[in-house]
Structures are given as C-alpha cells and as structure tokens.
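Figure 3 (text version): structure tokens given as input.
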C-alpha cells in the first residue's frame, strides 16, 4: 500500500463523504435500518451516529480497508449497540443465508468492482421480508452531465479509491435480485453535478 492510499485517501474520502449535503442524505436513510444490520462499506463510520438505537440490535460493518476501520472503531465503541467489523470486500460477505434484517448501502456501489456478485451476496444474507436501504450517487439523467461523467470517470477513480461517477444505480440493484419499492433522485445541493446525482430509497428481495 502506497503513501497516498494509506495516509491521504482515508482522509480524502472521509471529507468527501462527510459534506453537509451527504450528511443530509445519511439522515434520511440510516434511521430506517432495524434489527440485525449489514452495512456494506462502513468506511470511516459516518453512518454510526444516525442509527436509531431503539430499532437496531447490532451492526456488521463490512469494510476491507484497514485504515478506514482504524478511523471507524473509536466511533463504534461509543455506540449503544454492538458493531462487528468484517474486513472483506462486498463480493465476499461471510454471513449465513437469511441472517440480517437490513442491508445498508451509502455511497458504496460506486467503488465495488464486482457489483453483481456483491448485490447477489447482499440478497443471500437478507431475510425474506427484510429491506435494502440505499443512498448512492451515480449516472445523471442529463446528456451534457453524462458526457463529462464518462470523460472524467477514469481519472476520478484513480484519485478517489476506485469510485465511479457514472454507474446506473437502480439497474445494478435490480440486476442483483432486488425490487425497488421506494425511489427518490435528485442533484444534491452544493455538489458538482458529475458527482451529485443521487438515488435513494428501499428495495426488497424479488
């Protein structure tokens, strides 16, 4: 691991994922989680403060980057519910079938290389009747914005830990075996349009 990935990238991602507009999105979706929760891509722990402790039994924090976990652990230790870290990527979820009540995705699908495998794994561990809760930035609806998303995507990925700005989020979720039951979308305020088109809502198993 190079100097940038070890020391700069966690702070860069932490700052980018902690802006006020993104925090507002987290406030909308994270409190919907309940029971046993699998958070895919916990990062530095931005979501922890927004869980409703009266509804959550425990949280599995899937995060393959040890330097992200290092930042998240002190926050996790303050939570009134148990947080168990899993240091594997989204394509490798070591939980039993039908073992969690909620899967949470916030600004994670943009970086997972094998999205189909990851979504299928999330579907596998989610109990029948459980929910996938998500808030993800992705491909914009405007051709002029999409042109720049496609043009800059490779460069952006190199400096932002593999983040893709042009993924079709609803399609990825549905291809993974989910049915979207609630969907909102917009350009979040005070964010460059190429990075700010956000999809959020809920899905269940097809």
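Below: residues designed for each position.
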């Amino acid at each position: 691991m190079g100097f940038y990935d070890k020391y700069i990238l966690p702070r860069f991602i932490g700052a980018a994922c902690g802006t006020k507009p993104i925090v507002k999105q987290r406030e909308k979706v994270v409190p919907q989680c309940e029971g046993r929760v699998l958070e895919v891509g916990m990062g530095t722990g931005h979501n922890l403060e927004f869980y409703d402790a009266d509804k959550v039994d425990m949280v599995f924090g899937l995060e393959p980057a040890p330097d992200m976990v290092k930042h998240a652990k002190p926050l996790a230790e303050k939570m009134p519910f148990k947080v168990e870290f899993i240091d594997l990527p989204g394509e490798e979820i070591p939980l039993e079938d039908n073992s969690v009540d909620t899967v949470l995705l916030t600004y994670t699908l943009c970086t997972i290389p094998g999205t189909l495998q990851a979504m299928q794994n999330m579907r596998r561990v989610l109990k029948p009747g459980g929910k996938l809760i998500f808030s993800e930035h992705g491909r914009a609806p405007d051709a002029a914005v999409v042109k720049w998303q496609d043009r800059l995507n490779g460069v952006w990925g190199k400096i932002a830990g593999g983040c893709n700005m042009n993924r079709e989020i609803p399609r990825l979720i549905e291809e993974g075996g989910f049915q979207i039951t609630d969907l909102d979308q917009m350009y979040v305020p005070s964010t460059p349009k190429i990075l700010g088109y956000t999809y959020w809502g809920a899905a269940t198993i097809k």
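The two ends are 39 Å apart (CA to CA).
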